Amino acid sequence: MRNIHTPSQVEGCVVDEAQHALFIGEEDKGIWRFDAKPNASTEGKLIIKAGGDLVADVEGISLYQGASIHGKNKICWWSQAKVITVICFIKQASLIAKWGVSALG
């Protein structure tokens, strides 16, 4: 077991077992990637920064396990601020899809 710290509040996390990677959504900063191996460093890499397609106030994060898109791993996140969900490739952080939800009435 190890402790991992981020500068502000964490709102979600997901593990990609195939890549031995832990992804953490930090509310105001973005999405971090950490090595998920038990004895790995506690230093992470900020792979997707808040701003642009990732609106600050990240609320959740998950991996896309559906049909292969160009044979690459995908990560999804959503933001309370804009009620937007985004899917992008993990390694290049390049956008695949983006959509939002709104109330009727």
TrEMBL record:
InterPro entries: 6-blade_b-propeller_TolB-like, B-propeller_Phytase
SUPFAM superfamilies registered for this protein in UniProt: Thermostable phytase (3-phytase)
Family annotation (Pfam families): Phytase
UniProt GO molecular function: inositol hexakisphosphate 3-phosphatase activity
Matches recorded under Gene3D superfamilies: TolB, C-terminal domain
Source organism superkingdom: Bacteria
Ranges of residues in domain BPP: 1-105
Annotated protein name in UniProt: Phytase
Source organism per UniProt: Shewanella septentrionalis
Lineage of origin: Bacteria, Pseudomonadati, Pseudomonadota, Gammaproteobacteria, Alteromonadales
